[in-house]
Amino acid sequence: MRVLVTNDDGIASPGLHALAAVVADAGHQPVVAAPSTDWSGASACLGPLEDPDRVSVERVVVPGVAGPDGGELVGYSVGAPPALISMLADLGGFGPSPGLVVAGINRGPNTGRSTLFSGTIGAVLAGERFGLSGMAVSADVAVTGGTGAIGAPGPVHWETAAAVARSILPWLVAAPPRTMLNVNAPDAPLADLRGVRPAGLAPVGGVRTVILGSDDTGLDLDLVANDEPMPDDSDTTLVRAGWATVTSVSATAAIETDLPVGEWERIVRGGDGSR
Asked: How many H-runs (helices) and E-runs (strands) does the chain carry?
């Protein structure tokens, strides 16, 4: 199966390369297409683009992953956010359309409400619109180089998140179309991983944005660890306790709500139902 491998951290991320290796080792053909720059926090956006009528694409070698002929694997550095890359792949922009989308391995947790903003998950959501299943994979590592409570980024145990993704991939390939999973792993040696658990989304994310200061020209921001209490069975709590978590997620859908549309219509028409 052709599998799109993308991310929001950019084409140079070791996490992306580790996930491409997982796909190749499982006997599938990784189609590596990722942003040329960091699009973290882009959610499922499709722009903005430097040129709205053209997306820049550059062929690049993917380190540490063999191509289908045994030589170097060539991927694509794309001047676009991950959701648009996913859509372009579905439209045949990088060869025949893929049968699955995997995104990551993201540097930093995508848990709780943070999933709403994740470009990693945005790529999977875009694939779902074309009938594809997908998996977003993240490692719970430092995500700030500033002065926040999380500390500065350092070496990452990519192998732990990769091993979890490798165990899930065969199930996902056989799952019904439009199955979407959000996977998070602790940043710890694989030997220290406590196991894999299903988890609900925490009511808040594992990190939060704070304003450090402001002046007439802008706001100074940082990311810090979120210390709000969370349910014991939530993804944030379990990952912090050393578990890898798997959460089944869905795209935005309409829900039934008793809306007073009749009243709104009367207001639109001038209050008396006529115009």
From this structure: 6, 11
pLDDT grade, residue 150 (50/70/90)?
very low
pLDDT in tens, 221-243: 887 777 778 888 999 999 999 99
Residues β-bridged to residue 198: 246
Give the burial string for 198-228 (b: 16+ CB within 10 Å, else e). ebebbebbbbbeeeeeeeeeeeeebbbbbee
Q: Beta-carbon neighbour count of residue 120 at 10 Å?
A: 31
Q: Which residue has the higher pLDDT, 76 or 271?
A: 76
* Higher per-residue pLDDT: 254 or 123: 123
Q: Does domain 2-268 have CATH number 3.40.50.2000?
A: no
Cα separation, 4 vs 124, in Å, equals 10
Residues 6+ apart with CB under 8 A from 133: 100, 101, 127, 172, 173, 175, 176, 177, 178, 179, 180
**What is the sign, positive or negative, of the torsion defined by CA atoms of 137, 143, 148, 151?**
positive
Position 147 scores a pLDDT of 34
Q: Mark out the alpha helices in 156-269 (DSSP H runs).
A: 158-174, 235-240, 261-268
State yes or no: pLDDT of 95 exceeds 70.
yes
Q: Where are the alpha helices (DSSP H) in the chain?
A: 14-25, 82-90, 119-128, 158-174, 235-240, 261-268
Query: Which pairing describes strands 72-78 and 57-66: parallel, antiparallel, or unpaired?
Result: antiparallel
pLDDT band at 218 (very low <50, low <70, confident <90, very high): very high
Domain boundaries defined on the chain = 2-268
* Nearest-angstrom CA–CA distance, 74 and 211: 41
